[in-house]
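It is worth pausing here to work through a concrete case rather than discussing structure prediction in the abstract. The textbook approach is simple: state the sequence, then state the predicted structure, then interpret. We follow exactly that order.
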Amino acid sequence: MSNELHETCKRCGRVLKSEVSQSRGYGKTCAEKVNYGKEMDLTKLLEGEAEHVGD
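Step two, the predicted structure:
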């Protein structure tokens, strides 16, 4: 895992202010939208039933 800090959100480009957001590369809202830190059921993905991540 990288210790790189990001200045801007990898999804929307807004400036990241908190160290937590900077370390993950996403603000709180965008992290939720891309399901950051959540496991995905690969069985559903392979069957084409998974929700679109990052829509």
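Step three, interpretation. The helical segments are 19-24, 28-33, 42-46. The mean pLDDT is 81.
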